[in-house]
Model the fold of this input.
Amino acid sequence: MLNEPMTDTSPVVIKARSAFGILAALGMMTITANVFWRRWRKERNRE
Done:
């Protein structure tokens, strides 16, 4: 059962994986943007 090829992936599974990948990428981008934005604000406030 475990060593079966991954040819039985249905379009629903593929769509779910792609959607999860997009959500994960967006989440990482949002977190990174927040970190850079906070650092930039701190640097601007020092001047």
